[in-house]
Amino acid sequence: MGALFLLCAALGVACAAMGMRMLLADRRLEARLGMAGDRPGFRLPAAFGARGRDRSEIADKLMLAGFQDARAADRFVWARMAATVGAGLAAMLVSRIGWGGFLAQPLLVVIVTGLTYVGAKQAIHLLAARRARAIMAEFPFLLDLMLMMLESGISLDQCFRSIARDEAIAVPHHARLIAMLVADLDRGMRYEQALDRWAARVAVNGAKELAALFRQALFQGVELAPALREFVREFTQRRVANAREAMGGITVRMVVLMILFFMPALFVVLGGPPVVAIFDTLRGVSQ
Q1: What does the domain layout of the chain look like in residue ranges?
Q2: Cα–Cα distance for residue pair 168/179, rounded to 1 Å
Q3: What is the dihedral of CA 62, 68, 71, 75, to 10 degrees?
Q4: Start and end of every Type II secretion system protein GspF domain (predicted)?
Q5: pLDDT in tens, 5-47
Q6: What does the H/E/C string look like for 58-79?
Q7: Which residues does 235 contact at the CB level (< 8 Å), separation at least 6?
Q8: Which helix (H) or strand (E) holds 167?
């Protein structure tokens, strides 16, 4: 009887392992084909999850920050909730150690959990802005490379493959994205869908227009060189505008720093001797 029980248990474990192996293989196949978003994952209750406009904003910012997975929004919501709960428990532990009770300082617990919940979304905003600046800074170089390659006589497909293979140092962000585009094409994906996926991965202004231009060049024979020159000029102007905006922000921060740190010392140096003289005069008159 015991041997039969062990045999059934071993068969059950083997069947479970085989099923898990098949499930993982199916997930890998879905990820390769870009179908991971078709199957809904387990989500938080509506009271704790992101819905509507908030969910759309989170998904867009995660895409811009470089998280290309279709379930990135769900994973972010879970991670934010776990971080919030962890921060709340840590604040309760600090309250217990410092003041003798887990809820001895309820305001501290509320502030820490609230800042963690809000700060998670601000963190992805910062990551998205940082990646967008890096991609926009590389766009003029990328388009110049493409323009030189196209004018030398190679095709657009060869241009994509050359950039993905050889230009990882010159344009590291775009080389990785174009390598993903080439991988989609090698898997048999149509050019229209592959270029749309590339534009979605880039996720900055002008990417969809570039994808449409590449489709027109591939299927309608539109000449790329003049349009690429216009895109180079546009992205260069955007980069100059961003640099000027950053310089303006630095000027404002310098003014604030001068007001906070230099002006008090200046007031002490300029106003200190007259104040001391006034007090000495008043002291002499009173005596």
Answers
A1: 1-27+50-130, 136-237
A2: 10
A3: -50
A4: 143-270
A5: 567 667 777 777 787 777 777 766 666 555 444 444 555 555 5
A6: HHHHHHHHCCCCCCHHHHHHHH
A7: 136, 139, 140, 143, 206
A8: none
pLDDT in tens, 220-253: 888 888 888 888 888 888 878 878 887 888 888 8
Token code pair at residue 229: 């020159």
Angle at 68 between CA 115 and CA 129, to 5 degrees: 50
* Residue pointed to by tokens 């991670």: 79
Taking the CA atoms of residue 212, residue 227, residue 65 and residue 175 in that order, the dihedral angle to the nearest 10 degrees is 100
H or E element, residue 126: helix 106-151
Q: In the block, which residue shows the tokens 């080389």?
A: 175
Question: Residue 213 and residue 207: Cα distance in Å, rounded?
Answer: 10
Given a cut of 50, whether residue 64 has pLDDT beyond it is: yes
Average pLDDT (137-159) is: 90
Highest mean pLDDT, choosing among 17-31, 53-67, 111-125, 237-251:
111-125
Residue 45: its pLDDT value, please?
57
SS (H, E, C) 25-50: HHHHHHHHHCCHHHCCCCCCCCCCCC
Record the tokens describing residue 84, joined without a space.
């919030």
Question: How many Å apart are CA 202 and CA 183, to the nearest integer?
Answer: 16
Look up the pTM and report it. Answer: 0.68
Sequence-distant (6+) residues with CB within 8 A of 224 are: 146, 147, 150, 156, 213, 214, 217
Question: Rounded to whole angstroms, what are the CA distances from 28 to 3, 22, 60?
Answer: 37, 10, 24
